[in-house]
Design goal:
There is one protein chain. The protein is of the alpha+beta class. The chain has two domains: 203 residues, Glutamine Phosphoribosylpyrophosphate, subunit 1, domain 1 (4-Layer Sandwich), CATH 3.60.20.10; 84 residues, 3-Layer(aba) Sandwich (Rossmann fold), CATH 3.40.50. It is built from ten helices and 14 strands. A six-stranded antiparallel β-sheet has the order 3-4-5-6-10-11, with helices on one face. Strands 2-1-8-7-9 form a five-stranded antiparallel β-sheet. A hairpin with a 2-residue loop joins strand 3 and strand 4. The longest helix has 22 residues.
Length: 319
């Protein structure tokens, strides 16, 4: 994982990078870049980890940082890093057409020096997060909203609607306004969306969405085999791209199927994490245990009993 961040201003230029590379160079994140831009000439750009093979690249005036992975690199016939691939595809096809060609889990920032344009994008299902703050004629972005809060004009005021829905709604519905974040002046880029910032103005759109397909007519065994192949290949791609793969494991079919697929394709058991409870009403340990003997190499149990939620919130506020 390489959390990305950056800031662009038509008065001062652009800086892009990853949090890991910036920390290694003594930068704190967007607040540091904001100070750097104050005296910078127009269209100054620093990709802090341009040397890194996977997360940053500069190609013919196109500068890219990526948090995540592109899985269909082979069919796109590209050499070099994911960031280099994206830069070259952009030069050939444009940003939206590039996104339509990518199969991956990613948050992307691309700065085109020739048009003084910043492009942001998020993968189709929103696996990788991406937040931004548009203040005056500048736009800052980051993988985590906390990196944006100390910028002038942003601040830490909470988004009360978001907080209320998060506290009161079922977990399937608390993100029902995907453009919002927990903070009033920080926006979230929704899944399968792109954003362009140029000349101090923001435009945005969607590059992919679910669509209705015709009813399947193949026999059930054929459909089952097709589904199995899709699941196994999807898990294998992500497992291969991870430096230290680990899986959340509950007693249900979803997590156990993903974990079993990884164990089957890799030929070895995997590391798993599970939330467990003293109260048997919620605990799924008995349903999890059948997986442990053949698919799990290390089972990490995270115990949750009766947390003091309000104390946890107060502690978070102090931070």
């Amino acid at each position: 994982m390489a959390r990305i961040y950056g800031i662009v201003s038509p008065r001062a230029g652009a800086l892009l990078g990853t949090m890991e590379a910036a920390a290694a160079k003594g930068y704190a994140g967007p607040p540091a870049t904001s100070k750097a831009l104050a005296g910078a000439p127009h269209a100054t750009l620093a990709v802090f980890d341009a040397h890194a093979a996977r997360f940053g690249a500069s190609v013919d005036g196109v500068h890219v940082v990526i948090d995540g992975h592109v899985y269909n690199r082979t069919e796109l016939g590209a050499e070099g890093s994911d960031a280099e691939l994206i830069a070259r595809l952009y030069r050939k096809h444009g940003f939206e057409a590039t996104l339509a060609r990518l199969n991956g889990d990613f948050a992307i920032a691309l700065y085109d020096a020739s048009s003084d344009s910043l492009w942001l994008a998020r993968d189709r299902l929103g696996v990788k997060p991406l937040y931004y703050a548009h203040v005056g004629d500048q736009l800052a972005f980051a993988s985590r909203p906390a990196q944006l809060l100390d910028l002038p004009g942003v601040g830490r005021s909470p988004n009360r609607r978001f907080a209320a829905v998060f506290a009161a709604a079922h977990y399937r519905y608390f993100d029902n306004v995907p453009e919002e974040s927990p903070y009033e002046r920080v926006s979230q880029l929704p899944a399968a969306r792109w954003l362009r910032f140029t000349g101090g103005r923001v435009s945005a759109g969607a590059y992919w969405q679910f669509r209705d397909e015709a009813e399947f007519t193949d026999p059930e065994p054929v459909l089952a085999e097709r589904y199995r192949d899709l699941l196994l290949s999807a898990v294998q791609w992500r497992h291969a791209a991870s430096d230290r793969p680990a899986f959340t494991l509950s007693g249900g079919m979803d997590s156990s199927s993903v974990l079993a697929s990884a164990a089957q394709r890799s030929g070895k058991p995997q590391v798993a994490f599970s939330t467990v409870y003293t109260d048997k009403t919620f605990d799924e340990s008995d349903e999890i245990r059948p997986m442990l003997s053949h698919a799990v190499s290390e089972w990490n149990q995270v115990r949750v009993d009766d947390p003091d939620v309000f104390a946890l919130v107060r502690r978070g506020e102090r931070r």
